Amino acid sequence: MAGTETAETGTSTDAAQAAVRPAVKCLVWDLDNTLWQGTLLENDELALRPGVLETLKALDERGILQSVASRNEYDDAWPRLESLGVAGYFVLPHIGWGRKSDAVRAVAEQLNFAQDTLAFIDDQHTERAEVAYHLPDVRCYDAPEAAGLPDLPDFAPTVTTDARRRRAMYQEKFRREAAQSDFNGPDEDFLRTLDMRMRIARAHEDDLARVEELTLRTSQMNATGVHYSDADLRALLTDPDHEVLITTVEDRFGSHGAVGVALLERQPGRWRLKLLATSCRVVNFGIGTQVLRWIADQATRAGVHLEADFRRTERNRIMEVAYRFAGFGSKPCACQDGSEPAAGAPADVQRLHLVPQRQAAPTTLTASGPALWSGDGADRPWA
After folding, report:
1. Does residue 367 sit in helix, strand or coil?
2. Is 9 within 8 Å of 125 (Cβ atoms)?
3. What pLDDT sits at residue 343?
4. Is the CB of residue 243 less than 8 Å from the CB of residue 273?
5. How many CA atoms does the CB half-sphere of 42 hold within 13 Å?
6. Distance between CA atoms of residues 168 and 186, nearest Å
7. Is residue 318 within 8 Å of residue 220, measured between CB atoms?
8. Which of 74, 177, 303, 328 has the most CB atoms around it within 10 Å of its CB?
């Protein structure tokens, strides 16, 4: 039942624990006697369990992805999902005869999600126990809990316009990856075929839900792991010394949506990059690096140095590499004399420094953004 926790299955919906762990990003469903009533191989008359369709719809609208881990023949199970009208809700289904924990692990790896952002639901105690043993960070639920999952704190992320399109964006992502696998040539040449357009813009109030979501959901490409609340972001929007910048990307396959956020503080003689975070969906396109280069180019035009907050976490090694590769170092500069750590910043935040130089526009995408160095702040192409 909801609200219980058992060592055997790892099931936990305790509100206090949910408050300190990340929201679920993907729910993996068993099929027989979980998603539907009955067993496929026994030729039962199958129907969705009560409340399952409502749960599928609710989680999908919230941007929570859903997948399948089922012991069945794919050629039998997938057509049945289609006949029930629910196949379209699932990404990366694993239908076969391997261990359920292997299937759940593969889903996490294919989506590039941390295991503590996945959940698994199955009617069999032994299956839940097997997943919990091999993947202790995955939250496990019994089939009767399916109808109540949308009411749990773990399944209540911030809902944004991008969240409602998340399944479609991942499906577009898989088509890009298929096209890349068929492409015969260097990765850089393939990126040029995508016709990518990156736009950096000043955030408005209606962007704040997505900005906050990015600070919560993004772990690999997040420079500090610090969460900025809606109230924090609203205060920064009205502060003339701060820029709240949001990055969107689209290409010939569709829109990636809002994939990056940067919080920039203007100080005399230097700009301070308090946060840079980009979605894991665009890691392979180097969007985080391109945003960092764009900011460095803007700072050069403004004649200021750049300072960047960085805090090492378990998952953001790739962001540290991006900062170091861009030339940021730990050696202090005279421009930092008298500066204080950001209010509320963790004690282990490093303050990196860069004397920026002009950056050439990227060759794999077109980019534009506000001219932060200019008084008019007009949107201009990066050239």
Report:
1. strand
2. yes
3. 58
4. no
5. 8
6. 27
7. yes
8. 328
